[in-house]
TrEMBL record:
Domain of life: Eukaryota
GO biological process terms, semicolon-separated: anatomical structure morphogenesis; homophilic cell adhesion via plasma membrane adhesion molecules
UniProt-recorded name of the protein: Protocadherin beta-15-like
This protein's record includes keyword Glycoprotein: yes
PROSITE patterns: CADHERIN_1, CADHERIN_2
């Protein structure tokens, strides 16, 4: 009911207002600015209504509002002034309405009058333009093009009309201008952004109203420039240089490259890698993707590579990249020992090279550089070689003295090379050099001269002595060949006496020597080496033949031969001790072997004659008496003093008479031709039979001994021949030495020619026949066998006890 009443009043009010405006009476209208202080007078109603001052209070004038509306003005009943009763805020009351009218009513009672009061509230510029926020954040990618527009929310001003926002101002900046259209404010990109230059831009946008005084509101537009990957990474240096000693350990950081990327986030996320590099580099260096550290992962050898040039790539997340160069120079470390190379070598070197001869060329190398490759070379002291520096790192190995293979035949030459690094390294090489032989040494005999002593009657082929010559040269240059120097001994070539074994130097007798023929002779033996040309030296070999008792005494007187018997006359008056005759005998041997002694072995009247043991003088032992037989026959044996001794016998006829004429019986004792002939045949036959018998026995014995007891036989033989011992002076005993030996040995030269028969003979000659047997068959025995020499004066001569030729 109340609502409908109000609506009614309002409808009526419109009408009244319409009417009042037309009549300008009855309704009142006041216009005043908002926000007047309380109590401010808006107008005088009493005056306007034409009422007395008192009438208002009398009539209980009051201001009413419609319904619940706040009463903004009141009436001063005393003076009828309409005053502001409450704060009147146009914006609060009317907002953006262009006109703001508050409707109040003045109620008068008695009579009830109702006056409408329209309060036109006028806007005052009491509000500033205001943006919704103090900060506007906008993000713009830096890659945004020029002319790009960005809408900004406009500012609001609660005031209306001129007091509302009239214009905008953008504070000067580099990039943006403002474009204000009716409803929209836009930032227009006037110049491209660069995040890397300015990452954030604060723009101050001011909104201005049209009031007076003018009010403004500002907003800070915070422009965040978003990154675009518009920047490639940039290295801090275009070229990084590092120096590194070779052999640096793995993991050593060589250099750290660094690149920055002005972009941010992924766009500025720089990773490093090598650009195009060889596999070698990849095996030696690594780069840390994130940190840019270049580290060693392999062996660094200055001698292989002295510097590395590596392209390093820095790449940001989205693929922009740039490059830098890393130059790593490697410094040398003395890690290579010098190497000694033998370039050429004369090996072996002849020992006769002159000092200063180049025998080898040596090259020394050190792979290091500078001081580390300066090499000094030397060889050990005690060799006759030196190193002579030649061009560059070549050296000649040169002899410094005379070489002698016979002293030192091999040299181990150690060549040491030391470089000048610190610490220095060194190495050495041993060169083995042999000295080749030159035939520079003649054979040299061990003795100045040689003497050989041999008993005569030696076996042909027997060894006399041996000569030895030494030649220190090598192989054939030191191979000694012995030979006899041609010459003559007693008119015969020397080779008929001796032979020398060319290889061994053993000298053999070629023939049997006869002391009685010559006692000594000299030969020259040459030792020659096999070099080319050969060298040789001579030595004298003196051969001394020593005597063997091989000659039986030879009786010169009485003459053994002929039919005419020498008969000595012995005077009847001869006293005891008178020299009657003398047996003269000689012995071709010498010394003891020629020392003769005389014995009367048989006499007609023993005791009548005596013979001087050594003089051979036959003397009467007593005075001759008449009773003594006129014919005296003596058999005298002449013995030498050899071992065994040899002897000869002879018969001597003595006639005791003072006058040759007194010897008519001479015929009796004279030679009876027939008889003597017969006797001779008998004797010869007997001797032959005996000899054959003897020979036969000897053969039997010999064969037996040879077969079963040969060693003993040899032994026996050796013992049985004491003549093997010969005193040195013995050979010097002078003798006649001109007598020819009755014995001729046939020389045999080869053992192969010793046939079994001959062998026997040779052993026979070797005196392997027991000597006592021989002795037993000595002349005396023969004499016994043949009995009295008296009966067979023709035997007349001598039995020679030595073994006859067979
Ligand atoms: C040289 O060296 C070789 C091998 O090492 C050795 O057999 C020889 O005896 C040495 N010679 C000398 C003269 O040192
Ligand atoms: C022997 O010496 C000669 C030079 O006198 C030399 O040429 C030769 O090689 C030498 N022989 C040996 C086997 O050394
Ligand atoms: C050896 O003797 C012979 C002959 O007398 C002589 O020609 C030669 O020069 C000698 N040789 C030496 C090395 O004495």
């Amino acid at each position: 009911m109340m609502d409908s009443k109000i609506i009614l009043f309002q409808t009526c009010g419109f009408h009244f207002l319409f009417l009042f405006l037309h009549s300008a009476y009855g309704d009142m209208s006041y216009s005043f600015p908002e926000e007047m202080k309380r109590g401010s007078v808006i107008g005088n109603m009493a005056k306007d209504l034409g009422l007395d001052r008192g009438a208002l209070s009398d009539r209980r004038a009051r201001i009413d509002t419609d319904g619940t509306d706040t009463r903004y003005c009141d009436i001063n009943l005393n003076n009828g002034e309409l005053i502001v009763a409450d704060r009147i805020d146009r914006e609060g009351l009317c907002g953006e309405k262009a006109s703001c009218i508050l409707k109040h009513e003045l109620v008068l009672e008695n009579p009830l009058e109702l006056h409408r009061i329209s309060l036109h509230i006028q806007d005052i510029n009491d509000n500033s333009p205001q943006f919704k926020e103090d900060f506007i954040n906008i993000e713009i990618r830096e890659s945004a093009d020029r002319g790009a527009r960005f809408v900004i929310e406009e500012a609001h001003d609660a005031d209306v009309g001129q007091n509302s926002v009239q214009q905008y101002n953008l504070k000067n900046n580099d990039n943006f201008i403002l474009a204000v259209d009716e409803n929209t404010i836009e930032l227009v990109l006037e110049k491209e952004l660069d995040r890397e230059k300015q990452q954030e831009i604060n723009l101050l946008l001011t909104a201005l109203d049209g009031g007076s005084p003018q009010r403004s509101g500002t907003v800070v537009i915070h422009v965040t420039v978003l990154d675009a990957n518009d920047n490639a990474p940039v290295f801090s240096q275009a070229v990084y240089k590092a120096s590194l000693p070779e052999n640096s350990p793995v993991d050593t950081v060589v250099v750290t490259v660094s690149a920055t990327d002005a972009d941010e986030g992924v766009n500025g996320d720089v990773t490093y890698e090598f650009g195009h590099v060889t596999d070698d580099v990849k095996n030696i260096f690594s780069i840390d993707r994130k940190e840019g550290q270049i580290q060693i992962i392999g062996d660094i050898d200055y001698e292989t590579t002295t510097s590395f040039e590596i392209r390093v790539k820095a790449k940001d997340g989205l693929g922009l990249s740039s490059y830098a160069k890393v130059i790593i120079s490697i410094t040398d470390v003395n890690d290579n020992a010098p190497v000694v190379n033998l370039k050429s070598l004369t090996n072996p070197i002849p020992e006769n090279v002159s000092p200063g001869t180049e025998v080898g060329i040596i090259n020394v190398q050190d792979r290091d550089s500078e001081n580390n490759r300066q090499v000094r070379c030397s060889i050990q002291q005690n060799v006759p070689f030196k190193l002579v520096p030649s061009i560059k790192n070549y050296y000649s190995l040169v002899t410094t003295g005379q070489l002698d293979r016979e002293l030192v035949s091999d040299y181990n030459i150690t060549i040491s090379a030391t470089d000048e690094g610190s610490p220095p390294l060194s190495s050495s090489k041993t060169v083995q050099l042999s000295v080749a032989d030159i035939n520079d040494n003649p054979p040299v005999f061990e003795e100045q001269s040689y003497s050989a002593y041999v008993s005569e009657n030696n076996k042909p082929g027997s060894t006399l002595c041996s000569v030895t010559a030494r030649d220190p040269d090598w192989r054939q240059n030191g191979t000694v060949i012995y030979s006899l120097l041609p010459g003559e001994v007693n008119g015969a070539p020397v080779s008929s006496y001796l032979s020398v074994n060319g290889d061994t130097g053993v000298i053999h007798a070629v023939r049997s020597f006869d002391y009685e023929q010559f006692r000594s002779f000299k030969v020259h033996v040459t030792a020659r080496d096999n070099g080319s040309p050969p060298l040789s030296s001579n030595v004298t070999v003196s051969v001394f033949v020593s005597d063997v008792n091989d000659n039986s005494p030879q009786i010169l007187y009485p003459a053994p031969e002929g039919n005419s018997f020498m008969t000595e006359l012995v005077p009847k008056a001869a006293h005891g001790g008178s020299l009657v005759s003398k047996v003269i005998a000689v012995d071709a041997d010498s010394g003891q072997n020629a020392w003769l002694s005389y014995h009367i072995v048989k006499s007609t009247d023993p005791g009548l004659f005596t013979i001087g043991l050594h003089s051979g003088e036959i003397r009467t032992q007593r005075d001759i008496s008449e009773s003594d037989s006129m014919k005296q026959n003596l058999i005298v044996a002449v013995k030498d003093n050899g071992q065994p001794s040899l002897s000869a016998t002879c018969s001597m006829y003595l006639l005791i008479s003072d006058n040759l004429a007194e010897v008519p019986e001479l015929k009796d004792i004279s030679y009876d031709e027939k008889n003597s002939k017969l006797t001779s045949y008998l004797i010869i036959a007997l001797v032959s039979v005996s000899t054959f018998f003897l020979t036969f026995i000897i053969i039997i014995l010999g064969v037996r001994f040879c077969r079963s007891r040969k060693p003993r036989l040899l032994f026996d033989g050796a013992v049985a021949i004491p003549s093997a011992y010969l005193p040195p002076t013995y050979a010097d005993v002078d003798g006649t030495g001109t007598l020819r030996s009755a014995y001729n040995y046939d020389a045999y030269l080869t053992t192969g020619s010793r046939t079994s028969d001959f062998k026997f003979v040779s052993s026979y000659n070797d005196n392997t026949l027991p000597a006592d047997q021989t002795l037993r068959k000595s002349p005396s025995d023969f004499a016994d066998v043949f009995g009295d020499c008296n009966g067979s004066p023709e035997v007349g001569t001598c039995f020679i006890s030595s073994v006859p030729n067979v």
